[in-house]
Amino acid sequence: xxxxxxxxxxxxxxxxxxxYVEKSVWNPDKQEQVAMEIVEAGKHLNQLMVGHSMKIDIxxxxxxxxxxxxxxxxxxxxxxxxxxxxx
Length: 87
Fold this sequence. Notes:
By secondary structure, the protein is mostly helical. The protein has one domain (3-79). It is built from 3 helices and no strands. The model has no long low-confidence stretch (mean pLDDT 88).
């Protein structure tokens, strides 16, 4: 998979998480899927940054900014996940 494909895949996962968070409704069925998407997106984005910093995969300046922005958005969405109604 190309770097651009990896970035687009992670972007879709981040957007899915953001959509769930924006609804602000606890959904136990969706919560597990969202948790897996958070882990997977974080893994993809971190691998891209590590590969770039170790000069394995050279990202353009635009790609570095996009990956950095996606990581920030993912962390922000993770912090805003809806809580169960009983908490």
